[in-house]
Amino acid sequence: MAENTIQVDGVIRVSPNSDSNGSTTESTLPLTFFDTFWLKFPPVERLFFYELTDLTHHLFDSVILPNLKRSLSLTLLHYLPLTGKIKWPPQAPKPAVFYSPKDGVSVTVAESSANFDRVSADDIHEALELRPLTPELVTSDDFADMVALQITLFPNKGFSIGVSTHHAIFDGKSSTTFIKSWAHLCKSLIDEDQQSPSLPPELTPSFDRTVIKDPTGADVSFVEKWFGLGGKFSSNSRSLKVFPTIGTNEGFVRGTFELTREDLKKLRNRVEEYYQVKESKNKLHLSTFVLTCAYAFVCMVKARGGDRDREVIIGLTADYRTRLEPPITSNYFGNCVVIQVSFSKAEDLMELKGVEIAAEKLSEAIKGLENKGAVEALEKLFCLFGKVEGGIQFLGTAGSNRFGVYETDFGWGRPKKVETVSIDRTGSVSLAESRRGHGGVEVGLVLDKNEMDAFASFFNQGLKFV
């Protein structure tokens, strides 16, 4: 593996900047059924790379780091639950988040000798190279942290911010909102020299759990289901450790590919023409998300090769904030997502019209969300977990082209690159808006080197014939 020596300069805890007069009163944030569904999932890990070619040790220590720490402290005033821990009191039917003003968030400060240009590039490179830049989120039998951060200096090149978040409190939208809030306050401190900057309404979180209705007690039911499965991994049935993940193989590589607005337009026309010829009466939902996933997933199935009769399971993560009845505020902080599943045979997606077939299946899956309640959809996933057999190819997504991650400016410019590190352990495809703008989409994935080479060939060659 390419050299990536990390020197950890320290691990600190940043607490909310508060005038609470030393109050230690503990508060509790309940977990809804949306949260307890994700309770045992591994953390979501992201990296934001910022290029500053004149970044010396002195500038990092005297300007970058102090402003990041101070703005984080201000941010945590708005996000107090993130300073606490998930715990499970002996008599309680489910875990909850416990926090107080004296709590804080773990921040690792480090320096890397890695080649900044390589680890922040789209080019194919070793997946393990990003691991030293990513903080570990602590989970144990007795408690689990909410978030862990790492700020890493690349002398005379830039710095990175690594973020690990617990899936029982963060969905993708919530995680992005937290990071953008931190960036907004940091930029306000630097650009406007505000001593007490405020958050705009769209970045001000709502932790009101009463808006999530759960008349059937699905929150506790999901906990019981997870801890029924937990015996396979721990003798402690109430352990708050997340389920183990398969470590990243040294032969795995990471790559980023882009679909431009013009590519997406051509794909849309191709799919529409195919179904016009078929005289299909189905109205397709051909969003940028659907078209991107259809094309990327077909390339992944072709790159895997092998048994054409194998089953392919596609999981699409959908935000349910506007789908609930009544809808809830867009800045609701917590989990509010559902995974809609679609099934196919590899052979169908490997055909000449595989993209068209995939687009139809994904379109139908998304339209199916309109007729399905959130609890029902999540219950079906638990049933699926118990029936899965070997040889099945899973395809899923992490992130969204609607999150606007490249808008995350802490005061030193937009990120050069944003990576979803955790896809190296989940096999999902990461999605983000193109940092070049103009309506494109970045597709990130981690595969075996041979499979990645095949994927790159299918992806690039396929666009020539769209």
TrEMBL record:
Keywords: Acyltransferase, Coiled coil, Transferase. InterPro entries: CAT-like_dom_sf, Plant_metabolite_acyltrans. It holds the Pfam family Transferase. It comes from Acer yangbiense. One of its GO terms (molecular function) is acyltransferase activity, transferring groups other than amino-acyl groups. The lineage of its organism: Eukaryota, Viridiplantae, Streptophyta, Embryophyta, Tracheophyta. Residues 15-26 have a biased composition (Polar residues). Signal peptide: none annotated. The keyword Transferase applies. This is Uncharacterized protein. The keyword Glycosyltransferase does not apply. Residues 257-284 form a coiled coil. Residues 1-26 are annotated as: Disordered.
